[in-house]
Amino acid sequence: MEFHTVNKIQKQALKRSASDFTRLGFALFFMIGVLTYSFLSNGGVSNNLFLAVAALIGAYMAMNIGANDVANNVGPAVGSKALTLTTAIIIAATFEAAGALIAGGEVVKTIKNGIIDISAFQGDTNQFIWAMMAALLAAALWLNFATMMRAPVSTTHSIVGAVMGAGIAAAGFNIVDWGTMGSIAASWVISPVLGGIIAALFLFAIKKSIVFKEDKVQAAKTYVPIFVAIMSLAFVTYLILKGIKRIWPNILEFLNTLPMISLEVTKKPTFAVALTAGFIVAIFVYILVKKRINSSTTVLENTKDSVNTLFTIPLIFSAALLSFAHGANDVANAIGPLAAINDAVVNGGVTSDASIPLWVMGVGALGISLGLALYGPKLIKTVGSEITDLDQIRAFSIAMAASLTVILASQLGLPVSSTHIAIGGVFGVGFLREWLHIKDEKNRTIEEDILTIEDERLNKDAYEYELKELLDKSEKLQNDYVRIAELYKLIENEKKIIKSTKKSIKKAKKIQYVRRDAVKKIVAAWLITVPAAAILAGLLFFTIKGIMI
């Protein structure tokens, strides 16, 4: 029996090792391919070896973004069973790559968000290249570690911290824009709190308007089209503002070729334009969803599970659109420093802006998709099922928070992190479930415990009456003394029960719907992301500098 068990464990270990080696093989093949292509295609450029190594690190960084950050887009949909893990990976990988290639190639500031002042390098191209290479590698290593620990962290914060650390190592503390760093620190609180509040509000609204109703079918027919239309409004606005900025002028030029349309071509969409487009789409979506729910082909039961199925298709669209917007925005985290190094090597100088060649964009797009496919499932499971249990309604509320929070924060000028928003949304729905349970538990406990107190008081009165009679008895037998002692104990016991029951009325037993160990681990990872990436980048800069000098 023991031999059979050991043999079974060995087979499982070998199978897992083979799977790990296969993933590692694909990852190494991709990175070596990028290294080779970069080296051969830039053979006539001095320092092309630096560029080739930077391209390899950029590929490594892109895969780590795919493994860690993309989980926030599809994790809730997978956890709620709206999508299988395989389907989610295919959808996310496709739309991440599409977002990066179609809408992610705008001019990228090499020093992300103005974290450091590049004039402090005083035109020293080598120092700049070493700093950017150290920043890129440090951010990638930190993301790799966070993924191993199953902690979803902000890739933007990782690269920002790394650029800051490498900049300090290269030119001192004065190089850092501490005002920007303060905004980033503020986003640690603002992002999860806003995301959690908005997700909880939407979940509570859905529960009050549909789930808590006696006739859930009729309530669903009334309110589900409204909620899905609001989601369409939010996602279209979000996608226009954050996902297609680069190709916005091209879209307007195309529309101007249509009859009776004459639009002013602007560099990027305004909030009013994005919101108007969102309203138009929302109206069509409302009509479509209303028609589908009211059709005879849609059979609904008067249960929460039946209502949940109505949110499955919106969740699939949300996973795709969030992935597209993420690819368009966060690809810069992987290839921004790489584009800076490419510009410095090819042009022999240090500039604040650098256009991204197509091959560099391809490294980011393919790397994110490959990293998601190879190493994304761990974080997808963490976000989808290891923090709190999700169903379609809860996942829908999280998706709503992901889009609405970014829109709200961008209009208020608040710094936010999409990763922290999504995880904050997961926390929000989990803690709302706890609050609702506690509220119901208290109501139930009060009713039951009031009856218990009344029964115990009756018993106590009966024991006290019997005790008084025995004590007043002029001649007591031995059995009477035994009974008196018993009655004293019974009365004392009844007092304890009454006291304990009163306490339980004041404080109902709390069941935790959010796993506290997961919350602590994730929050700790958030807090140390910037300093950890900065320290690592500084050490790597001095290492690279020591090797090169």
Automatic annotation (TrEMBL):
InterPro entries: Phos_transporter. Keywords: Coiled coil, Membrane, Phosphate transport, Transmembrane, Transmembrane helix, Transport. Its main location: membrane. It is found in: Membrane. GO terms for cellular component: membrane. It is a multi-pass membrane protein. One of its GO terms (molecular function) is phosphate transmembrane transporter activity. This is Phosphate transporter. It comes from Sulfurimonas xiamenensis.
